[in-house]
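Hello,

I think I submitted the adenosine monophosphate job twice by accident. Can you confirm which output corresponds to this input? Input:
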Amino acid sequence: MKKVFIFLGPPGSGKGTQTSRLSDKLSIPHIDTGSLLRKSIQDATEQGLIAKSFIDKGQLVPISVVSEVIKERISKEDCKDGFILDGFPRSIEQADALNNIMTVTKFNLKDNGLAIYFDIKTDALIHRLVNRRSCPKCGTIYNLVSNPPKIMDYCDICDTKLITRDDDNEETALLRFKTYEKETAPLYDYYKQMGILKELDADKPIGEIWENLKELVLDEK
Ligand code: AMP
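Support: Only one job matched these inputs. Its output is below.
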């Protein structure tokens, strides 16, 4: 089975929800650059200070910052049996950088990697983003319309008050889609050419996407 998974798709396409499930199922870490960057902002690190100004504008944080964050994270012991990347790479430049960064692991993408593209039309996604809520403690993601918590505004798992991400407002979300189309969408062809791309119909209920994702991942030798 493949060991390194790259989840590709527009903001709000459901990557985070499915990566968490796959991470539990395969017992490998879910590495989400957005969350790592938000944590560095919370901790007021130097990287966090730089990242904030880009995140607030819906733009990509400079590659020097994200590459460092990823390199540090995938060098850790818990990544030795594999890992799932969600939100990295996000540009051709980052994909090239990842090929080099992979040398800190025993894996290479051609043999051990699988890129999964979440195929969904972007028109409906703004609505999803502005209705998204997340738990600041355990990271569970909800949607007030399609996947609401049992008690409004509180996490089903740990009862913590849910938050709305600062960049999940309509104005910043639109900018994030523009950045996605320009910088990230070309990765579809990049990984297709590398021969490691699989597509997933992401315009379905969460449970159905999960069933399809499991088939797709477990079918891979
Ligand atoms: P996300 O949580 O994946 O929606 O990411 C939120 C924001 O973090 C993005 O809009 C970017 O500003 C920043 N970000 C996350 N991952 C990356 C990345 N790989 N490269 C540059 N910026 C990123």
